[in-house]
Amino acid sequence: MLSEKKSVWVTVVNVLIALVAAFTLVYTYIWNTNVALRLFVAAFFIIGLAGMAWRKYGRTAASAPEAKKEAAITKLALLGDDGERIKEWYIHGETSLLVGRSSSDLEVQIDLSGTEYAALVSKQHAVLNFTSGNWYIEDLESSNGVGIKKRGESGKRLLNGDAPEQVHSGDTLYIANTRLLVK
């Protein structure tokens, strides 16, 4: 409902801008005889059109870092043995997520207690932290470790227990034998 109201107001403002632009052109080139004003309005419209064209089509070398910026991570997907997504957790806006098995005395945000390999998952297995615009995973001295398979790589590797590992969209996390796809 709120986005519909915003969209209506955006349309109203766009129509008003178009009407003001049309009136300016009519006044300047039909009723007005001042050559300097005609040149100023022509230059203003040319610069405006060039700016709009650059915003739409001209993002090249000047904005290369923006173009290379990868998609933001918004969710984790629990994968079955066949690669099918069984469950998803939306993590956009979170700062820290405990991965493990929930119990009566401990609640984790990414609960793997109902998974096929739940017996291999520690209660506090790993933690995902968001800092400085990036997600990191860290093994919390779990019994069966945390692995990661980077997007585009063929094999997984175990995390070093002392250091957090940055994760990217497309990476697969291994919590014991349970696979989580980072999206």
Description of the structure:
This protein is α+β, with helices and mostly antiparallel strands and 183 residues long. The protein folds into 2 domains: 66 residues; 108 residues, Tumour Suppressor Smad4. Helix content is 32%, strand content 27%. The protein has 3 helices and 11 strands; from the N terminus they run αααβββββββββββ. It has a 6-stranded antiparallel sheet with strand order 2-1-11-10-7-8, with no helix packed on it. It has a 5-stranded mixed sheet with strand order 4-3-5-6-9, with no helix packed on it. The mean pLDDT is 88.
Short description:
Pfam families: FHA. This protein has three helices and eleven strands.
CATH class category of the largest domain:
Mainly Beta
Number of strands: 11
What does the average pLDDT come to? 88
Q: What is the first-to-last residue Cα distance?
A: 28 Å
Task: Report the CATH architecture of the largest domain.
Answer: Sandwich
Instruction: Write the CATH fold name of the largest domain.
Output: Tumour Suppressor Smad4
Helix count, per DSSP?
A: 3
Transmembrane segments: 7-30, 36-54
Organism: Paenibacillus tianmuensis
Keywords: Membrane, Transmembrane, Transmembrane helix
Protein name: FHA domain-containing protein
